[in-house]
């Protein structure tokens, strides 16, 4: 994808290489798998894990010092920042078209562990959005694991898709969709609550597609193979694909993010339509 030449964002934080004496979550083994299953493109679900995961942490204190970033890390940061700027421009335009004001979130890159207003997390949680501080958190090692462990194609637009999905959760927070979903989950069985979670995640995929549509019109940034990269990533993080890979069988009632086919379909619907009003993923479960 074409991304060079974008201006800098005021909402980008690079905490990679920062040492921390803070409380961190043990991310390996079974616990790491549980976090990955629940929080791949984590959205709102990271909050549900906080009480359990904080009990598994250790230590106290705040980040203390940061090593110098390598040239490759600096280049990665510039790319992430370029995508963030594009999301800011697109969603500001969409909100303005609908007589609303877009509030720009921050995006934080971290290494290994990070402290957030939603609790503490490690790289095992995957990228996630924290509505309490309105920030997206990412450890870029996730994208290598997406390729090596889950068979995704990789590529720069796969990363852009993930960022756009997390920004989609921010849009849901601004529109009140996330809060409404949590209210709807109250008193529901776990299976019914999971269906609502799936709808929220699929809508974030739809918003990632809408962003792609607008960005292509505004910046003509797509190159051959970019959409395939996004679809490959969406397939790799489908609940059915992850469960089949990790536990060897699929339990549909435990899905929280949607199947590979659903995730790809909703991204494509957003990309092809560019119409934010066509993203009612909750209609399918009414």
TrEMBL record:
Pfam family, one: Zn_peptidase
Keyword rRNA-binding belongs to the record: no
Entry keyword set: Hydrolase, Membrane, Metalloprotease, Protease, Transmembrane, Transmembrane helix
Membrane topology, record value: Single-pass membrane protein
Source species, domain of life: Bacteria
GO cellular component term of the entry, any: membrane
UniProt-annotated location(s): Membrane
Residue spans crossing the bilayer: 21-41
Main location: membrane
GO biological process annotation, one example: proteolysis
KW ATP-binding (keyword) present: no
GO molecular function: metallopeptidase activity
Protein name: Metalloprotease
Organism: Flavobacterium caseinilyticum
């Amino acid at each position: 994808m074409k991304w060079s030449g974008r201006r800098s964002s005021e909402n980008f934080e690079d905490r990679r290489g920062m040492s921390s004496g803070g409380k961190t979550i043990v991310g390996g083994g079974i616990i790491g798998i549980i976090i990955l299953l629940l929080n791949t493109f984590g959205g709102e679900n990271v909050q549900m894990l906080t009480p359990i995961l904080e009990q598994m942490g250790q230590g106290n204190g705040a980040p203390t010092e940061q090593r110098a970033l390598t040239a490759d890390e600096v280049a990665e940061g510039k790319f992430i920042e370029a995508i963030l700027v594009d999301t800011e421009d697109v969603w500001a335009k969409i909100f303005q078209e609908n007589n609303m004001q877009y509030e720009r979130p921050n995006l934080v890159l971290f290494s290994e562990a990070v402290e957030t207003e939603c609790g503490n997390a490690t790289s095992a949680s995957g990228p996630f959005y924290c509505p309490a501080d309105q920030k997206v958190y990412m450890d870029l090692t996730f994208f290598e694991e997406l390729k090596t462990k889950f068979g995704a194609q990789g590529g720069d637009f796969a990363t852009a898709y993930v960022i756009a999905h997390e920004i989609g959760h921010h849009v849901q927070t601004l529109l009140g969709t996330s809060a409404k979903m949590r209210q709807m989950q109250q008193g529901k069985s776990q299976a019914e609550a999971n269906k609502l979670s799936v709808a929220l995640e699929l809508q974030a995929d739809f918003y990632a597609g809408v962003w792609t549509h607008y960005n292509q019109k505004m910046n003509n940034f797509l190159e051959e193979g970019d959409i395939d990269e996004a679809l490959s990533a969406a397939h790799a993080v489908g609940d059915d694909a992850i469960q089949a890979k990790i536990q060897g069988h699929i339990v549909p009632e435990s899905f929280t993010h949607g199947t590979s086919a659903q995730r790809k379909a909703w991204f494509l619907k957003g990309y092809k339509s560019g119409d934010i009003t066509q993203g009612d993923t909750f209609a399918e479960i009414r």
